[in-house]
Amino acid sequence: MKVLVVNCGSSSIKYQLLDMTDESVLAKGLLDRVGIPGTVLKHEPVGKDEVVIKKDLPDHTEGMKLVLEVLVHPEYGVIKSMDEIGAVGHRVVHGGEAFAYSVVIDDRVKQVIRECFDIAPLHNPPNLMGIEACQALMPNIKHVAVFDTAFHQTMPAKNYMYALPYELYEKYKVRRYGFHGTSHFYVSHRAADLLGKPYEQCKIVTLHLGNGASMAAIMDGKVIDTSMGFTPLEGLVMGTRCGDIDPAIVFFIMEKLNLSTSEVNNYLNKKSGMLGLSGVSNDLRDIQEAAAAGNEKAQLALDVYYTRVKSYIGNYIAQLNGCDCLVFTAGVGENGIDMRENICKNLDYLGIKLDPEKNKVRGKEVDVAADDSKVRIFVIPTNEELVIARDTYQLAK
To answer: Best exposed site among 97, 109, 167, 212 by fewest CB in 10 Å?
Structure first.
């Protein structure tokens, strides 16, 4: 069976087509600026040259039509007809408390996705647009929703509840949900394989470090805690997100800067984090370069970033009562040599000791821990698309 994996943003469509007989990728691509002048499709068929198509498209339905056209194109396509696509897997950011697993999409599933619009306004609406566009074009096959929040639904109430009036949870489901679930799922299972232990017997801390960043503590095959919360704003310092702050700061800056609720939300999500602290960039590489050149604010941003991650490592190892391994993944985690070294520095007491020579690697699966480290330190490239494809394949069968 061939499975199409679709990830729709507000103005983008990412896709991969996989052959599940051997889990090989046949093609992948990105359609950007959907509904905006200057729409561009970059299509990468395996074994063939990349194709770039510039064509303004009004909506996601027209965008998906173009994606399907290039997949079956006689010159740069990879299948002869759409009939070869056996199922479509959709990344959906928020499933609330309703879904702890991936599900075949029906009217109830779409209703739950709609009900989560208020708590995931940037992600769930385009996710649903993508689902409905694909269903209109491919009505006779199964469509599967794979939720970013699902993996974290094993958290105990003591870790997902906030110390707010309980009625907020009862009426509005205000609680910690966690995100990047498919990534944490993939790399934690892969880490158990590398440890040579059953997944259900491992104590793992996963670090998904990209422009958006989150961590998870996994014990006995279940997530017990994660850093992102009700929204992806909570937790670590990120590229443009502030992470954990005193909530009173929100009211203070609204008053001082005369910001509306939507403006302060944008301020904390888009103008803060590493960008806000450094004044240089949201890209860790640019900030490291500036710090090396003597930029004190850039160095401060790095120090804050490393310290926040270290704090969560200590928190999670305390909750796990030990740790078998740390797992670095995502763009920064997989490629940030200096970042990994600085995060692991001075954690010897916790049994974490990194080997600087082994650590000189980017984007490859490797154990960078010193030989005498009690805790293994893995770099594992994530593969969220494969997780989505596997779940979709199993449900479609």
So the answer is: 167
Separation between Cα atoms, residue 193 and residue 5, nearest integer Å: 25
Do 100 and 229 belong to one domain?
Answer: no
Residue 332 counted as an annotated binding residue: yes
- What does the pLDDT read at residue 119? 80
Catalytic residue among 148, 225, 324, 367: 148
237 pLDDT tier (thresholds 50, 70, 90): very high
Name the band, by pLDDT with cuts 50, 70 and 90, for residue 205.
very high
Residue 388, domain member (yes or no): no
User: Are residues 345 and 209 both part of a single domain?
Assistant: yes
148 in catalytic set: yes
Helix (H, G, I), strand (E, B), or coil: what is residue 14? strand
Same-domain status, 316 and 219: yes
The whole-angstrom separation of Cα 177 and Cα 222 is: 14
What's the domain count of the chain? 2
Q: Is residue 285 part of a domain?
A: yes
Q: Does residue 208 have a known ligand-binding role? A: yes
Note down the domain range covering 86. 2-147
Q: What is the CATH number of the domain that holds 74?
A: 3.30.420.40
> What letter does residue 79 receive in the DSSP assignment?
S
Measured distance CA(329)–CA(213) in Å, rounded:
10
- What DSSP string runs through 19-72? ETTTTEEEEEEEEESTTSSS-EEEEEETTS--EEEE---SSHHHHHHHHHHHHS
Residue 43 has pLDDT above 80, yes or no: yes
Considering the domain architecture, whether residues 87 and 234 belong to the same structural domain is answered as no
Q: How many angstroms separate the CA atoms of 368 and 361, rounded?
A: 9
Which tens digit of pLDDT belongs to each residue from 242-287?
A: 999 999 999 999 999 999 999 999 999 999 999 999 999 998 889 9
Task: Tell me phi and psi for residue 90, to 5 degrees.
Answer: -110, 130
Q: Which residues contact 20 (CB under 8 A, 6 or more apart)?
A: 1, 2, 3, 389, 390, 393
pTM for the full predicted model: 0.91
Q: What are phi and psi of 216, to 5 degrees?
A: -145, 145
Task: Flag whether 211 is in a domain.
Answer: yes
CA distance to 204, 311, 320, per residue, from 308 (Å): 18, 5, 18
Asked whether residue 294 is marked as a ligand-binding residue, the answer is no
Q: Is 97 annotated as a binding residue?
A: no
The share of the chain scoring above pLDDT 70, in percent, equals 100
- The pLDDT of residue 123 is 82
Listed residue (148, 146, 144, 149) closest to 97, CA to CA: 149
